[in-house]
Structures are given as C-alpha cells and as structure tokens.
Amino acid sequence: MQKFAALVAIALLSAGCSQSATSGSSMSTVGYAFAPPAANTFCARQPGLCSTAGKTKVMALTEARMRDLKRVNASVNQRIQQREDIATAGRDDDWRLPTSVGDCEDIAILKKNELRKLGWPASTLLLTVATYGGTGHTVLTVRTDSGDLILDNRTGAIRNWKSTPYRYFARQSQSESGRWTRIGA
User: Fold this and answer.
1) Which of the four pLDDT bands, split at 50, 70 and 90, describes residue 148?
2) pTM of the full predicted structure?
3) Which has the least CB within 10 A, 30, 38, 154, 168?
4) DSSP state, 124?
C-alpha cells in the first residue's frame, strides 16, 4: 500500500491536483483515479466484495444503524490481527477477505462485507485510500446523512472523515462499480 500511495500522490501532484480534503461533512469527488493495483486483482476474484451498486447514495443514520457501525468496527478490529501483506502473502500489496490476520485494506473489506450482510447498500460503503505521515492507508467510508464516516482499523472511534488525521485522495466510485474517484480539494 505504501508504494501505491506514493505513486498516486506523484500522479495527482503532477496533474496539478491537491491531495487536501474538502470542507464539509461529506467528501466531494473530482474525476477518476487509479484503483490500487492489488484492488484490480482482488475485485476480479471477488466482484461482490468490490461492488458499489445500488441507488442509495446516503443512508439515514439512525441509532440502530450507528450501533451497526460501532459493533462491526469493534468486532472486526478485535478479531483481526493487524499484519502486513509481506508477512502474510509474501507481497507488498495483496487484498483479501481476512479470517484472522490482515492489513488495513483487508480489514476495511471485511467491515464492508459484514455491513452488507446487515442490509447496508454497497453504494454507501466505499473503500477509501489515504496517506498519513507518508504511509498509505485504507479505510471504509460510510456515506450517511450525517456526513461521511470512517471505519478504521487504527481506532475504535467512528469519526467524520474531516476529524481524522488522514489526507484522502481516492475512493471507490458510488456510481460506477470498478471505478475509483479522486477526493476533491
């Protein structure tokens, strides 16, 4: 993931695009972005886990739905031991649905999968790539009427994307499964 984050950052900067986040409680997107290379391989194997299909663009955040988010975030964070791909798959970047160990994108994929099983539309659950301190990181963005919320393996807190320390640069497209969009400046 680190190599991918560096490549995307260079591509965005060379295109004259900012990596900084937008103001507001919801991310805005501007144009297409490259998918992380390992995402393409994973999505070819597991298209259902990569889907963003659906008409619902924003979920009403009820108390019950917030409980879903908290329960899934805490459960996955507790069950899955953080371990980098090089140690588990022998490669720098290998996306998979984890059972006991995984890195950030694996954990985000599992959270998406578990929320889908609870009835959340795929179109509101978007894998999102960011950087923090020069290192690539993947989280799950959940689109709600209270803003875009982040489920992260680094914390049990569910926060609005603007309240996280990350510099977001791309996420899955809500309108086109298989495509990624740049986070606007």
Assistant:
1) very high
2) 0.85
3) 30
4) G
